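Justification of resources, computational component.

The compute hours requested in this renewal are based largely on the per-chain cost of generating structure records like the one below. Each record pairs the submitted sequence with a full structure-token output. That output is archived, and it is also reused by downstream analysis tasks.
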Amino acid sequence: MKKTARVSSKSVKKTNSPLLPVFFLVLILILLVFISFKVKKEGSNSIKLNFEPIKLVLLYPSTKNDKIITEAEVKIKASAYNRKIAFVRVVLTFDPTKIHLVSEITTNPNLSTVVEKSGLSVANSEGKIVFVIAASPEDNPPTGEFELASFQIAPGLVDKEEMTTVDFLTSDMQIVDKEVQELKIIRKELDIRIRPNE
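The structure output for this chain reads:
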């Protein structure tokens, strides 16, 4: 009687092709390099501006005896990547019938040379805020994430719920870095809801 040889399943090893995981690793590496290059390229010639907070609710008196008027601080935040900012001209627009400034504009102390800055009454009559600031030789020019300016606002003479914005007028703005390169401005407006105090 002949014995049939049995091959143990443990002795048979499946060999997976190493090409598939290597291909995926190479693909992931290429994607990472592409994303890194894209971010670096975007950051090399642009600056992002936005408001903090990005959305705001202001309250106005709902009755004659109601004394509440909400005042809120608004900050302009900048993201300059690795660029050192040397010169800034910012123009903001708003509807002065719906909101108004209740404080003067405070600008970044590391851009200490104030070339131009709208006063309270002018800004509220025109519905426009303009400030032009630059770094002096003694300043440490701001870079990365930083606060560019701040101011306080309150609701105007409104008698119903309103929506309004404060926005950047980029066509009349300019931001230049220490290497005297003008940066592309990417901005996000401030959305404001005005409602009665109820």
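The chain has one domain: 47-196. The first strand starts at residue 46 and ends at 52.
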